[in-house]
Inverse folding.
């Protein structure tokens, strides 16, 4: 009984995922005015030769710092949970 329930739930989840994926639509990204702005001004404003690096570290620096803090906290939590304890 339990195995049949697991199989049914798995089939339903795969079906729902299939419906969601087939319903996704991806439009033509085209060219946004911000694209031109970053390409033309990133080297002048940030001094970086790479536009991606300029966007990540200069324009979105606090966001990148926040993402790094979340990753560090997650790694710290996992290491604390999985560490071996010494028996005193």
């Amino acid at each position: 009984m339990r195995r049949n329930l697991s199989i049914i739930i798995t089939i339903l989840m795969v079906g729902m995922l299939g419906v969601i994926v087939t319903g996704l639509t991806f439009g033509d990204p085209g060219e946004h005015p911000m694209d031109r702005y970053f390409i033309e001004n990133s080297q002048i404003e940030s001094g970086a030769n790479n536009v991606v690096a300029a966007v990540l570290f200069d324009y979105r620096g606090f966001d990148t710092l926040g993402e790094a803090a979340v990753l560090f906290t997650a790694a710290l939590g996992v290491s604390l949970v999985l560490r071996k304890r010494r028996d005193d």
Observations:
- The mean pLDDT is 88.
- Residues 12 and 18 are 10 Å apart (CA to CA).
